[in-house]
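Subject line: Sequence and fold of a protein, written as structure tokens
Area: Proteins and the way their chains fold up in space.
Start of record: The labelled sequence and token lines come straight after this line.
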Amino acid sequence: MILYVLIYLAGVFIAAVSQVMLKKAAQREYESVAKEYLNPLVIFAYVLFFATTLMTIFAYKEVPLTYGPILESASYIFVTIFGVTIFKESFGWKKGLALALIIIGILVFSFGV
């Protein structure tokens, strides 16, 4: 089951990367609405989203359904890290506390502490 959990988490990570790509694309100016949505960065981000959907479906062959939301919550960690490192967003004590609670929740659920 560990392999399938890792596949699920890899899908969550790739989805976070896709979100970064879409935000980068949204920060640009475009000549037309068509070019805003039909540019390589946006198209590739949506292809990655589709791939993550397939990864999740594949992972659910072995991962219990109850683990899905727990594993999916790792996306908050990835998105926060990308926001701070790539977009230079602030990281205060509230975000730190929230991430710590998410990590504690994942550990408590996963290991039954």
